[in-house]
# Entry
Amino acid sequence: MNLPNILTLLRILLIPVFVVVYYWPSEHSRWIAAAIFAIAAFTDWLDGYLARKMNLVSGFGAFLDPVADKLMVAAALVIIVDTYSRALVDWPALLATPAIVIVGREIVISALREWMAEIGKRTQVAVSMIGKVKTALQMLAIFLLIGTDPSDSLVWIGVGALYIAALLTLWSMIVYLRAAWPYLKEGL
# Structure
């Protein structure tokens, strides 16, 4: 067990804390939950940085890190869709659409990476700069949407950022699928 792996496990342990705090009946629960999400997002960056910097990259970390990221983002998106579908009754699908795109892409890319690893071509679908920008924008959007009251006009910045993140999500998925296409078409 090394420090990057401990940070990844911490991120997973923060998920139920994040959910409970968000729904806790307190006027500050939204911002505390947003702070917990920000800490989790920071540990995502920090564990990767430390693993590379200290030469502590491990199979366990390579497996668990993306799982922790996807669990935290999925939990946050479920909360956002729940909250905003009740608050914005005229537009119940406003945030469900980008949430489905983001979660769906993660499922597709996870399956693609697993399959590419099985055939020894995992590096063909490595994380790209588009994916990094998408992740940063997605984290900002989720932070704003978790921490902001649905009646606040700041919400629209979060909504816009989430839609841009969803578009970048689709774009990065296309990039990954194009890289994998020569191997995928062999099975047709």
Observations:
- The domain at 3-187 is CATH 1.20.120.1760 (Four Helix Bundle (Hemerythrin (Met), subunit A)).
- The chain has one domain: 3-187.
